[in-house]
Write a structure and sequence with these properties.
Order of helices and strands: HHHEEHHEEH
Largest sheet: 2 strands, parallel
Helix content: 40-55%
Strand order of the largest sheet: 1-2
Strand content: 5-15%
Number of strands: 4
């Protein structure tokens, strides 16, 4: 019974498709085609706004070049507010004084940050993201790895998502060993967790 019903449905669908292939008795209007004259026109009010692209996410294996590419949309957004996030010093901070090159009004900076950061600033690697329920476990395992490589003073940061090297005395050897070994430990721990 099931096969007969399927065959009947297929026959009906084929007949409907064939009927759709006949010529229309009335001519259809030509479709609208974008031209140079219409390219600059304003879209109708009901047109949806351009979607904001998904925020980029850092990866553990990203390098400085990857970061430069990821941060460009954020920098462009900030520049739209007249703020350059590179090398700025906010007015009113120590040594502020009168406006100088590279000094930005704090209100303008905060307004630009409030709009640009949530849309364009790269998200941290998933292994360090507060939204990841396993992020603190990852950091704890990396700290164990670093201690195994001779880093004497290393602990998770207060939020548990990154590393603090050197302890209260800024132990130079722990800082340099930590920085030299953190990438290897992160890769090792990430590989074991997959």
């Amino acid at each position: 019974m099931g096969r007969r019903r399927s065959a009947a449905l297929l026959t009906t669908a084929a007949l409907l498709a064939a009927a759709g292939c006949t010529s229309d008795p009335e001519p259809r209007a030509a479709p609208e085609i974008a031209t140079l004259a219409s390219a600059g026109s304003k879209p109708p009010a009901s047109a949806p706004a351009s979607p904001v692209p998904e925020r980029p996410r850092e990866r553990l294996d990203d390098d400085a070049d990857d970061w430069e590419v990821m941060i460009r949309p954020y920098e462009k957004c900030m520049a739209g507010y007249g703020v350059s996030p590179k090398g700025i010093r906010l007015q009113g901070n120590a040594g502020g004084g009168p406006a100088e090159a590279g000094v930005v009004d704090e209100k303008a900076f905060k307004k630009a940050e409030a709009d640009c950061r949530p849309k364009y600033y790269p998200l941290p690697p998933w292994e360090h993201d507060p939204a990841n329920p396993e992020a603190k476990d990852f950091v704890r395992d990396v700290v164990k790895c670093l201690k195994g490589k001779g880093v004497k003073y290393v602990e998770p940061t207060e939020d548990g998502l990154w590393y603090s090297f050197g302890g209260p005395q800024n132990h130079a050897d722990s800082i340099s060993r930590g920085m030299n070994n953190v990438d290897d430990c992160e890769r090792d721990v990430a590989t074991r967790r997959k």
